[in-house]
Specification:
alpha+beta; Transferase(Phosphotransferase), domain 1; two-stranded antiparallel ribbon; globular; Ser/Thr_Kinases-Pseudokinases; Kinase-like_dom_sf; protein serine/threonine kinase activity; ATP binding
Amino acid sequence: MPMSYLKHKGMNYLHQCKPEPVIHCNLKPKNVLLDNVGQLKIGGFGLTKLSKVSADKFKLAHPKNDILNLSIYSAPEICRNEIFDGSVDTYSFGVILYEMIEGAQPFHNKAREDAVKLICLEGKRPHLKYKSKSYPVELKE
């Protein structure tokens, strides 16, 4: 099974947990692990404390006031300390997929702080350049 599908399946499972969905908020490659039999595991929980706003909406309980300390994988809502839902993990998953396809992070030619500003404050989105010769043709469509 492709790694990207397993990651998606894991995040979908977490977001449908009862009685409360589990939103990771800190998904990045170093938090995506494989065990000794090749099962995908998601780690790095516990770093983020959430305040519930409604049934499926949250805010960070202790937001990072400095945008420059945020990860390139952080969704813009997290960066701007806005109300969010599980889609922040979907965003982070998309950035990880981008990196898997392109072999580099979005805006890799910029300093991390500048890349975070472009994404979170200016709303810029990277475009796939399809540098890898092994990417599926369906991704271009």
